[in-house]
Design a protein that fits this description.
two-stranded antiparallel ribbon, binds iron/sulfur cluster, 2 domains, 4 strands, Alpha-Beta Plaits, mainly alpha, elongated, 3-methyladenine DNA Glycosylase II, Chain A, domain 3
């Protein structure tokens, strides 16, 4: 009887060790896949994919719970990057998640802003600065164009504009000398 109990105990311990080892081996592989997927997402945290941010979407893709074509800000570029990584066929962006509008940023008409700070709370990447009852403005370089600030603005003073000011040309564009023809 005692031998049987000891044998059972040893078996249970062995079984537990195997399970522990297996999950220890699997965990990092799953974790690194999530990391690799997340690296390919635009980090707009805009939830247009139906998940509360880029990482939860990456985790769902890694668990094969959802498709790779649900990220409008990333657009076709992100679908292709994920298809390459996961050895899947690229698919057109899922229109139910919204349309891809690359190269746009939010712009606040500061003359209309009433300083209610609702946009500031809605922005997932802290691209809006301002204080209560003071004018708010968008930091272009931080804005991902996710449009989450549009809906909460009570005076509708936020527009999406094309991000024409490419950081590489900004300085040269502003600082370049005025040519003879321009100066008339
Ligand atoms: S400013 Fe608006 S559009 Fe830009 S990242 Fe924030 S919420 Fe999105
Ligand atoms: S939500 Fe609109 S009115 Fe309110 S602070 Fe932002 S831009 Fe200004």
């Amino acid at each position: 009887m005692l031998e049987a109990v000891i044998a059972l105990g040893l078996l249970a311990a062995l079984f537990g060790a195997v399970l522990g080892f297996a999950s220890a081996r699997l965990q990092p592989r799953e974790e690194s896949l999530v990391e690799q997927i997340n690296e390919r997402l635009p980090q707009t945290q805009c939830a247009q994919c139906g998940y509360p941010g880029c990482r939860p979407y990456a985790e769902a893709i890694a668990r094969e719970e959802t498709d790779i074509n649900r990220c409008p800000p990333g657009g076709e570029h992100t679908v292709r990057a994920l298809a390459d990584l996961l050895d899947r066929d690229p698919r057109p962006l899922d229109p139910s998640c919204g349309s891809s509008t690359p190269g746009q940023v939010a712009s606040i008409d500061e003359s209309l802003c009433i300083g209610c700070a609702r946009c500031l709370e809605a922005c997932p990447v802290d691209a809006i600065v301002g204080a209560h009852q003071y004018m708010h403005t968008v930091i272009r370089d931080e804005c991902t164009g996710c449009e989450l600030c549009l809906e909460p603005c009570p005076v509708d003073c936020i527009d999406m504009v094309s991000n024409t000011l490419d950081p590489r040309t900004r300085l040269t564009d502003i600082a370049r000398p005025i040519t003879a023809t321009e100066s008339g």
